Amino acid sequence: MPSTALAGIRVLDLSRILAAPLATQMLADLGAEVIKIERPGTGDDSRAYGPPFADGPEGERTDTAAFYLSCNRNKQSVTVNHATAEGQALIRALAARSDVLVENFRAGTLAKYGLDHESLREVNPRLVYLSVTGFGQSGPYAQRPGYDGIFQAMSGMMSVSGHPDEPMKVGVSMVDILTGLYAATAVLAALRHRDATGQGQFIDLSLLDCGLASLSHFAMNYLVSGEVPRRRGNGGYGGIPSQAFMCKDRPLFLVAGNDKQFAAFCAAADRTDLLQDPRFATTSARITHREEILPVLEDIMRTRTRDEWLAVLDEHDVPAGPFNEMPEVFADPQIQHRGMLVEVEDPVSGRLPLLANPIRFTATPVEGYAAPPALGEHTADVLGRLAGVTEHQLAELRAWGVV
């Protein structure tokens, strides 16, 4: 079972693709009942975001993309056409019995169907209503569409990522992922407020805002100094060294973030003479003389193989790690010990591998996972249980294309 931390909380999930579904998956992992509303026939757009698609029990290809599987576990799928009057009535009935509603339609879209916050709080004033959009509910860009790469570019994330002569997108959909985490946090805070006051509220969350907020110390460095951050490839902005180095055979990532760690590195490298050089003796001095010390460190790192360095650096308690490809990631003994790869029974593909939730509770652990639902898998159960739809009515709604 998922965690029981949010047991008794019901989330109506009208979202698609990645950022908002990641937020609702987090809430589901933490024990909330999450009802995913999808379009009849096609469902969440991400179901088709393949290849790769999941394999069936006999190795045959299914029509469910791995992308969809990444952010929809522990949910129930209900198909409802919100563009019909009957579908709108069903969603309102479900919203009246929910604690949270999450949607990521373009600003103003759901107001056309009477499913916006102002309309739904009339049937449920305790409802926490989260809207995730690209640019927010207001401003000159509010009606623009957008995707993760656009927000990485516009927020400044790409301006500080990549090599000096080439801005670069972060490989994963980082703004989507960070927005999902902000969204889950916002919902939990709003539920706390709701429980204290009896009133729900509207949450306006913008991917552009979240992308900019994630620049953190990079943005603060600029605001304080007025200096535009330089792209440093695999180099960081912390202590020196804090970057990738090529060893005799393969690269590793090394961080000596303070003077104690740098002294330990010098001992591991048999170069304690560096500590006597005033240019390199302190963290501030090393940052100031970055261009002078880096060539020295690069020459030192090329004297041993990666594994030799990892062993001696570990012995001296200096933070370092290898560059792992995916097979190496999941073969890593620490990853295996932490249980970050789990398998669940899936009616479509048989056994389905999933990334585990990284949160470790002592009192309310996440102890199991339900496979991401098939399209409309829970329509009859949810609508019967929460909206009073009979079998006869459900058959009619199916015939009319409402569900």
Automatic annotation (TrEMBL):
It comes from the Bacteria. InterPro entries: CoA-transferase_III_domain, CoA-Trfase_fam_III, CoA-Trfase_III_dom3_sf, CoA-Trfase_III_dom_1_sf. GO terms for molecular function: CoA-transferase activity. The keyword Transferase applies. It comes from Streptomyces himalayensis subsp. himalayensis. This is CoA transferase. SUPFAM superfamilies: CoA-transferase family III (CaiB/BaiF). PANTHER family: SUCCINATE--HYDROXYMETHYLGLUTARATE COA-TRANSFERASE. Keywords: Transferase.
